[in-house]
Design goal:
17 strands; globular; 15 helices; alpha/beta; eight-stranded mixed sheet
Length: 413
């Protein structure tokens, strides 16, 4: 079992600098309560909503395909098999164009990004199923890419090359498409069907208008601000810098904004499949750095529902976090609310100005003991029609009964 720690020196240095600056400007508001600093835990709030009838468990079962893969075995085959178990691909007609949304926040290798092996497998499968073109894209995070109307510093393409993703895409016959390369005006305003937190709309890349279908391929990772980086969180990678600034500026609803961003009309119309690999997990801190945990048996998770996918993916992440070496559990940088608050202020500064950072809302980071503590998912249940009643399809009986039962207990409400 190979496990390693990725360095986070650069982020911590900037965190310290901004923390000092905020102290000078008397930004005590970072540590005061606001309306989203609930007096009760998110899981208890969810329970009260369920008792009150505001949220129900969906009556029909939602399928999530899981395929176990031992380290060193054929992950590409596992991805293809899991994908075909999760969807029959009847939505894909010969000659159509598919967009694969990956997660490439940085230039660090998987699991700080989506799995290049998995992406390669999906490109080949889609072409085999009749896709004329398979376009693969994302736009990296502000720490690594400064993309503004009048200037661009950094490159998602270079970061993809550094992580090995670019080579995997091209070798499999895919077409890399990096949003910032088309310029500031190549984005359009999309709207959610809820309009609760995003009533001004979302700036989305125009390439999405030119494709027929979307396949989302996230990773399974901790996230220092949002709690976890799974399928729902991957939506941020679509957004132009001004939308990302709104997202982090209005930090007290960051988790709810994450969920609602997935109700954008384009995604509702075109997203067909969500599939990720959990043979490596960024189990602490995140989104770019932290402790890399490599379980002896990995898991491929696939579903047509992004909410159901994330329930199982988060369960897999939380289960594996209990297996980390004792010295890696409960670390201050991983669990601290103060670090998350300051970290979000750093991001707002990068996306906007120091004034934006000083005036931005305070982020509340909730402790994740089980999946019902996740505010992203809890809001997703409200806006996606309830809590999915998960059916785990054990693809080719590769997952042990013990693990299957463990996951089912974690995701059944």
């Amino acid at each position: 079992m190979k496990e390693k720690k990725i360095k986070r020196r650069g982020f911590l240095k900037l965190l310290g600098l901004v923390a000092g600056g905020l102290a000078v400007f008397g930004s005590f508001k970072l540590f005061k309560d606001d309306i989203f600093n609930q007096k009760i835990s998110p899981s208890k709030a969810l329970s009260q909503s369920a008792i009150g009838g505001d949220i129900n468990v969906q009556p029909q079962k939602t399928n999530v395909s899981v395929h176990a893969s031992h380290q060193g075995h054929d992950m590409e085959e596992a991805v293809i098999t899991a994908a075909q178990a999760a969807t029959n691909f009847s939505w894909l007609k010969t000659g159509q164009v598919v967009f694969i949304k990956t997660v490439n926040n940085s230039g660090f290798s998987y699991p700080a990004t989506s799995s290049p092996i998995a992406v390669s497998a999906m490109i080949k499968l889609l072409k085999q199923k009749g896709a004329r073109r398979v376009i693969v894209g994302d736009m990296s995070g502000i720490e690594h890419l400064k993309f503004f109307k009048d200037k661009t510093i950094g490159s998602t393409r270079d970061l993809m090359k550094k992580s090995g993703m670019l080579q995997a895409i091209e070798a499999a016959g895919g077409e890399p498409f990096l949003f910032e390369e088309s310029g500031w005006d190549s984005f359009y305003q999309d709207h959610t069907d809820t309009n609760e937190f995003w009533n001004t709309g979302l700036m989305m890349p125009a390439i999405l208008k030119k494709v027929d279908h979307i396949v989302l391929m996230p990773r399974c990772s901790r996230h220092v601000l949002a709690g976890a980086s799974l399928g729902l969180k991957a939506v941020v990678g679509y957004w132009r810098t001004d939308t990302r600034l709104q997202y982090h500026y209005h930090a007290k609803s960051l988790q709810e904004r994450t969920a609602e961003g997935n109700r954008a009309k384009t995604l509702l119309d075109k997203q067909r499949l969500v599939i990720s690999t959990g043979d490596k997990l960024l189990a602490t801190f995140g989104p770019d750095t932290g402790y890399v945990h490599t379980p002896p048996v990995g898991l491929v998770i696939a579903s047509e529902s992004v909410v159901a996918h994330d329930m199982v993916s988060l369960a897999w992440l939380l289960h594996n976090r209990t297996l980390l070496p004792e010295k890696e559990q409960g670390r201050f940088m991983d669990t601290s609310e103060a670090v998350a608050k300051l970290g979000n202020s750093v991001v707002v500064k990068w996306l906007g100005t120091l004034e934006n950072s000083l005036m931005s809302e305070s982020l509340l980071k909730n402790d994740l003991k089980h999946i019902w503590d996740d505010r992203v998912l809890n809001h997703a249940y409200r806006i996606f029609g309830g809590i999915p009643y998960i059916h785990l399809e054990n693809v080719q009986n590769t997952v042990s009964k013990k693990m299957l039962n463990t996951l089912l207990k974690m995701v059944r409400y």
